[in-house]
Amino acid sequence: MNMMQSQIYRKIVSILPLLWVIFMFGCNQSQEGDQIAKVRILYLPENATTSAPVLECNDIFYYSNMLKDTTIKEDRFLQSFSKELHKLERCSEEKAIDLRIKCEITYKSESVSVLCLGAYFNTVLDGVLVEDNPTLLRLIKEKIYR
């Protein structure tokens, strides 16, 4: 190794610990931001019929006379919910939707996401139609329709 290569090598080696610390701090920050603090679920009764399809998540409030509300902070539920939520992928086709459940997801970073689901199918995450996840829907239904 010549003198110039040796100096470059020493500089790289001296910077590596700093990069490692920055990387680890950055990973912890993003992981903390992804942790769910609570999920507020607004939902219609299990076999409720509506006069028109609920096409937008906030349209569920048109049925406020029969709307129910619960907030879940239970760690085991939140971990399972988060695991299934991360599996959602954008839907490649257009679908006619009819929503019945609205989940307001509050993260420990205080950011909020909104997940809306139909009674049996249709899933919208932050305004984007995503592929259905039957496990996620079942998890939510078991909690609200017990």
Question: Would you give an account of this structure?
Answer:
- The chain is α+β, with helices and mostly antiparallel strands and 146 residues long.
- Helices cover 37% and strands 24% of the residues.
- It contains 3 helices and 6 strands.
- The protein has a 6-stranded antiparallel β-sheet.
- A hairpin with a 2-residue loop joins strand 5 (123-125) and strand 6 (128-130).
- 14% of the residues are buried.
Q: Count up the domains.
A: 2
Return Rg in Å.
22 Å
Shape: elongated
State the share of residues found in helices, binned by percent. Answer: 25-40%
In round numbers, the mean pLDDT is 85
**Could you say which structural class the secondary elements and strand pairing correspond to?**
alpha+beta
Q: Strand order across the biggest sheet?
A: 2-1-3-4-5-6
**SS elements, strand count:** 6
- Tell me what portion of residues adopts beta-strand conformation: 15-25%
**Largest sheet descriptor:** 6 strands, antiparallel
- Succession of helices and strands: HEEHEEEEH
Q: Kindly, what is the distance between the CA atoms of the first and last residues, rounded to a whole number of angstroms?
A: 71 Å
Unreliable residue stretches: 16-33
What assembly state would you assign to the polypeptide chains in this entry?
Answer: single chain
